[in-house]
Each structure stands twice: as structure tokens, then as C-alpha cells.
Write a structure and sequence with these properties.
binds adenosine-5'-diphosphate; 9-stranded mixed sheet; UDP-N-acetylmuramoyl-L-alanine:D-glutamate ligase; 304 residues; 4-stranded mixed sheet
Length: 304
């Protein structure tokens, strides 16, 4: 089983315990999912497709991926650019984020259709997100969607998390439109109800699921914070309860780690409900720790 995630990994500067000092890390939605996949499902080959620069920071990112067990053969380099950066500020425990990613190398990840096709031809399960689409120029979005459509036609499974981030898009209409084009090339969609309700006016998780089914997706899994996870497979709907925590430490990467747990279950032949149950256990652990990439003991993946 070979898993390929496509998107942007950024450098992260997080406040350390010493005031005014920051710790360098790396994170990004699709990358976080790849990182958790490599942690919990070492039997799966995990690869990441992105673009980085040729500077020392870009090299450090690539080395970090490799040390995390991620195959970097699909990481392209672009000498004119470097990795995007974000900085976390803390104000009375509240985190806020500042981004420098407008010119990041990752924005060129879909510039070469042949490279995309080559990387995808090597994968069984291919994962991308709304953020992956948002950071690309409109013509490169079309290039990526075409490559995904062709990969799907050749039997690859395509998975998509809409991850709605209106600030990354030209307008809410372009976001909604392009997200549904992403859905139309996908077999699996993993939306989060709160975001979908805000931007698509879905009244219920079931309405969210139905909208993605209508777009051509076969399997939809609707995350909903501490509320039950709704899933739909063709005509069949079901729910998996969440053992809700009263207090979470940091919801960063809740959805990303959930997706990793779900893909790990999928990759090892678990049923849809069992995969979701494991995804809930994994993300439940992650939200009890600070940061996107949680090094704590993670719940082991049940044997498939
Ligand atoms: P996103 O990060 O995409 O907004 P959600 O907030 O819906 O995703 O959370 C993803 C998953 O994380 C949920 O489906 C659930 O399994 C887990 N989770 C989130 N909040 C809690 C909580 N308070 N208690 C237990 N699990 C939680």
C-alpha cells in the first residue's frame, strides 16, 4: 500500500518557554496527515509531493520529512523560492497565526504535469486538500485536478479534505466552486461540518454528506468536533460516536490526524466504521497536546 499526500509544508515558529524566543518546526495540513500516517502505519509507504527551495531551511525540511519516515522523491526544488513560514503568537493562552506564504515554493508544485503523473502512478491512495488547491494559481489548479482525474481513471483512490480557508482564496465563490471541482475528482471526502455549514449553508452533517455524494464522491466522512462522525457510502449512512473531552489543550491538527487514522484503517483493510473509530482515538489523543505534530504515545492501529 502506497500513500501519497500533496500540498504545502511550512516552517513554523512557535513560542518557547523563554519570552521572545521561538522554536523552529515544520507543519501543514496534508503534511501533518502524512506525518501521522508514517507514525501509526509504518507498514504503509508514505510519500509527500510538494516543492521547496534550495536554501538551508528547505534542506532542513526535506531532512525532517526523511527522518519522519516520509519518502521525499516527489519533493521538487525551485531555486528561486523557499518554504512558506508561519509564526504563532500567544496572548493569554490564545494562539494566533501570522503567515508568510504568498511566494512559497509549494505554489509551484503543479507546474510540471509530467512530474505529477509520474508521482501519482506510483501511489494507491492519493490525498490532497482545499488548501493544496487554494495556494495554486487558477491554471495550476486545473493542471492538478486533471492529473488527479487521470490517476483516478487508472484505478488510484483519490481522497480530499475540503479544509475551507476563505482567506487563501480570491473569493468565497471561487473557493466553493473549486472545492466542488476537487470533490468531483475524488472517491473519498473528509469535510468538517462547522466549516461546511459556514460556507455552504448546510443545515446538517447529512446535508454536507449528500452534497459531496451528489458531486460524485463514493465515501464521505463528516467530522464534527466532539459530536458524532457521520459517514455515507453510496446509499448507506451511519454514525460513529466521539468520546468527547471536556477540555482540549490545542485543536491544531485535529482534522489532519483524524484523516491519518482513517487512511491508516483504510490502508490496512479495516471497515469504514472501524477506521473512523481509530481516527477518533488518534485525534482525541492529539488534541490533548500542544502543537500540530504530537510526539506522545499515540494509540496503536488495530490489526486489520
Ligand atoms: P477540524 O480540525 O478539521 O475542524 P474537528 O474539530 O471536527 O476537525 O475534529 C476532528 C476530530 O477530532 C473529531 O472528529 C474528533 O474525533 C476529534 N475531536 C475534536 N474535538 C474533540 C473533543 N473535544 N473531544 C474528543 N475528540 C475530539
Amino acid at each position: 500500500m502506497r500513500f501519497l499526500a500533496i500540498g504545502e509544508c511550512m516552517a513554523e515558529l512557535a513560542p518557547s518557554d523563554a519570552p521572545g524566543e521561538y522554536r523552529l518546526g515544520f507543519a501543514g495540513d496534508t503534511f501533518n496527515t502524512a506525518w501521522y500516517m508514517a507514525r501509526v502505519a509504518p507498514q504503509v509507504s508514505v510519500a509527500y509531493l510538494t516543492a521547496v527551495g534550495e536554501d538551508r531551511l528547505s534542506q532542513s525540511l526535506t531532512e525532517f520529512m526523511q527522518a519522519s519516515g516520509i519518502d521525499t522523491r516527489a519533493v521538487q526544488t525551485n531555486a528561486d523560492r523557499t518554504v512558506g513560514l508561519y509564526l504563532i503568537s500567544l496572548d493569554n493562552g490564545e494562539r494566533s497565526f501570522s503567515y508568510w506564504r504568498g511566494q512559497s515554493a509549494a505554489r509551484t508544485l503543479a507546474d510540471d504535469p509530467e512530474r505529477l503523473a509520474r508521482a501519482m502512478s506510483d501511489a494507491d491512495l492519493i490525498y490532497f486538500s482545499g488548501i493544496t488547491l487554494a495556494i495554486l494559481a487558477p491554471d495550476k489548479r486545473a493542471t492538478l485536478l486533471k492529473a488527479l482525474r487521470e490517476a483516478r481513471a487508472q484505478g488510484r483512490t483519490i481522497a480530499f479534505d475540503p479544509n475551507l480557508r476563505p482567506r487563501l482564496w480570491e473569493s468565497p465563490d471561487v473557493m466553493r466552486n473549486t472545492i466542488m471541482q476537487g470533490a468531483a475528482v475524488s472517491d473519498i471526502a473528509l469535510p468538517s461540518f462547522e466549516d461546511e455549514a459556514s460556507w455552504f449553508a448546510d443545515a446538517t452533517p447529512r446535508a454536507t454528506a449528500q452534497r459531496y455524494l451528489d458531486a460524485g464522491v463514493m465515501t464521505v466522512v463528516v467530522k464534527n468536533g466532539p459530536s458524532p462522525v457521520l459517514y455515507a457510502e453510496g446509499e448507506r449512512f451511519g454514525e460513529v460516536p466521539v468520546t468527547a473531552l471536556d477540555r482540549v489543550t490545542d485543536t491544531t491538527a485535529a482534522g489532519d490526524s483524524f484523516n491519518a487514522g482513517f487512511f491508516a484503517g483504510h490502508a490496512t483493510g479495516q471497515s469504514l466504521a472501524d477506521g473512523i473509530t481509530y481516527a477518533c482515538a488518534l485525534s482525541r489523543e492529539v488534541v490533548q497536546h500542544r502543537g500540530a505534530l504530537v510526539d506522545a504515545d499515540l494509540p496503536p492501529l488495530p490489526k486489520g
